[in-house]
Specification:
3 strands; single chain; globular; three-stranded antiparallel sheet; alpha+beta
């Protein structure tokens, strides 16, 4: 029994590594062309359609917000940082989380509007922006496995189910990231 538990633990660790290595290339794995124009144009579009703001709050707290505009909708993600001086708005620790929260909001809006292709684009953009270093290596994390399940559901023709799973996993990962960096996500 002890050997079986160790084997399962080792297998889950290996699968976690495999999933993390593949989660950023989710769309290439399932052969979905979710980008309708070249990636450089997409990056330029997003850079031109985003804003980053830093607002002072009380007790040495600062609200950092990232707002993205995509297909006539906007999503805003914010985090609260505690430090004595104004944080650098270009700090990727802050903007990665706030930006992925903005994409999360946009993906939820697009899903609610039943614009599945746009929801898929937005949730994948959020996962990409957050990156693979969203939690401590000591954390037991199965979000990579669930993202593979989402990819499978999408490939099987159940796009809405897959997107819902991806949205849940992005939400979980943003919370893990906030915990890792001692950041507060205002709700």
């Amino acid at each position: 029994m002890k050997n079986l538990s160790l084997s399962l633990l080792s297998l889950s660790f290996i699968m976690g590594l495999v999933c993390e290595a593949t989660s950023s290339s989710l769309f290439s794995k399932i052969n979905i062309n979710y980008i309708s124009f070249p990636i450089q144009q997409q990056i330029n579009f997003l850079m031109a359609n985003s804003t980053i703001t830093v607002e002072p709050k009380e007790n040495n707290q600062w609200l950092i917000q990232v707002q993205y505009h995509y297909q006539s909708k906007s999503g805003t993600g914010g985090i609260i940082v505690t430090q004595e001086t104004s944080p650098n708005a270009e700090n990727l620790i802050y903007t990665s989380l706030a930006g992925s929260l903005a994409w999360l909001e946009l993906s939820e809006q697009k899903l609610k509007a039943r614009d599945l292709d746009a929801a898929l684009f937005c949730v994948q953009a959020g996962l990409d922006e957050l990156g693979a270093n969203y939690t401590s290596p000591l954390t037991i994390d199965d979000t990579g496995l669930k993202l593979l399940l989402a990819a499978e559901r999408i490939q099987e023709g159940y796009q809405e189910d897959g997107i819902k799973i991806m949205i849940r996993m992005l939400d979980i990962r943003t919370k893990l990231y906030a915990d890792l960096h001692n950041l507060i996500i205002p709700r």
